Amino acid sequence: RIAPKIAVMGEYKSGYDIGTELTLFKAFAGDALDPNLESFVVTLRDPDGNALIENLDLLNTENASKTLSVKLDSYGAYALTYTAKDTSGRTGSWSQMLSIIDDQAPVITVDGKVPTTGTVGQQIKLPMASATDNVDTDIKVCVFVEDPKGAIVEVYGTAYVDNVFTPAYVGEYLVKYLTFDGTFNIAYETYTITVE
């Protein structure tokens, strides 16, 4: 025997923006050898596994004809599943993951003024910085300095905590405050210090 087949009358995208109002496409189920389905339901779960629509009976004419809409207001993957069962107990299903992708970069706040000038051999102290993000709460900011010869040194972040560097050459030093969130959206702020 053959399990029921499901046809969805539209094509879902793999990625949606946060806050999208999603209208579910109509769907139909059938079984060539057993035209009397026992059940045909749709379920939609949010990224935390909570049911937004759970086993809604699509054999019910009222349910089948109504427009089903939900707001996608959480980041992550929503699981959409249509399931049909025939009178012999065979089950067919159609499913798709609908992803809400975080493509918004964190925002860096530099806590003070970055110096614009310095002197060879004298320490330059850079202000600390913090970052906020629309999803992630624990965001670190790293600070790097590129000297006039192209060498890059980390002055704050994973290896260092003092936010101080001592220029060894005359010229322009590029200071970069850098951070990224859990989906690798990158943010940075760049400053130039002229050393004499």
Explain what this protein looks like in three dimensions.
With 196 residues, the protein is an all-beta fold. Helices cover 3% and strands 51% of the residues. The radius of gyration is 28 Å and the shape is rod-shaped. The model has no long low-confidence stretch (mean pLDDT 91).
- Our Rg estimate from Cα atoms comes to 28 Å
**Helical proportion?**
under 10%
Note the beta-strand portion. over 45%
SS field, number of helical segments: 1
Shape: rod-shaped
Mean pLDDT: 91
Q: How are strands sequenced across the largest beta sheet?
A: 2-9-8-5-6
Q: What is the CA–CA distance across the termini?
A: 85 Å
Structural class: mainly beta
Sketch the topology as an H/E string, one letter per element.
EEEEEEHEEEEEEEEEEEE
What summary fits the major beta sheet? 5 strands, mixed
Q: Tell me the total number of β-strands.
A: 18
Low-confidence stretches: none
Features:
5-stranded mixed β-sheet; 18 strands; 51% strand; mainly beta
Short description:
The chain has one helix and 18 strands. With 196 residues, the chain is mainly β. Strand 8 and strand 9 form a beta hairpin.
